[in-house]
Amino acid sequence: MFTGIVEELGEITAVEMLDDACRFRVRGPVVTEGAKHGDSIAVNGVCLTVVEHGNDEFTADVMAETLKRSSLGALATGSRVNLERPMVADGRFGGHVVQGHVDGTGTIVGRTPSEHWEIVKISLPAELSKYVVEKGSITVDGVSLTVVEAAEDYFTISLIPTTLALTTLGVKQPGDPVNLEVDIIAKYVERMLGAQGGAR
């Protein structure tokens, strides 16, 4: 489990295309410290498994389904990525419950800068709209954020200078894709209410 608090801004150092998947090599000195084969690391919000590691880098295999459902397929050598290790049992819970299971992708529609923050508008797939509410939580490229405005086909987030400086959201521009993971609690509530309705 992750919390959506990005630990460092890493870099894709190599992309190897396979028949039905690809392998990324990622530079991330912080997240590779103490890493072992089989550990999980979230890359732009996608939970990936460490295959090899060393010299401040790790490799991870990404299957076709993940490439299809996320924006990882758009990454290339030199791309910057948000990195986070799983939460430890005695760690601080700084964000919200993030599984690293991307629900879909959105596209940055616009950016409105202000003196102390920036409002970013992101398109919202129709099937995810019901899970996104004003002042609720959402994960964008692995970053735990609070929804400012929630509409049927878009939502907005407000980014503080720290988030702009330390994550990919500071440099992504209109037209760029982002990974979205909605709040898992909303999906559980929907499931339970649906089951109760069917039992009547």
Structural description of this entry:
With 200 residues, this protein is α+β, with helices and mostly antiparallel strands. The chain has helices spanning 29-32, 64-69, 161-166, 184-199, and strands spanning 8-17, 21-27, 40-43, 46-54, 57-63, 80-84, 104-113, 118-123, 137-140, 143-150, 154-159, 177-182. A six-stranded antiparallel β-barrel has the order 1-2-5-4-3-6. Strands 7-8-11-10-9-12 form a six-stranded antiparallel beta barrel. The radius of gyration is 17 Å and the shape is globular. The chain starts with 7 loop residues before the first strand and ends with a helix. The mean pLDDT is 92.
- Global shape: globular
In whole angstroms, the N-to-C terminal distance is: 35 Å
Rounded mean pLDDT score: 92
Number of strands: 12
| SSE pattern | EEHEEEHEEEEEEHEH
Poorly predicted runs: none
Give the amount of beta strand, in percent. Answer: 35-45%
What is the share of helical residues?
Answer: 10-25%
Number of helices: 4
Radius of gyration: 17 Å
Secondary structural class: alpha+beta
Q: Major sheet: order of its strands?
A: 1-2-5-4-3-6
Described by strand count, sense and barrel closure, the largest sheet is:
6 strands, antiparallel, barrel
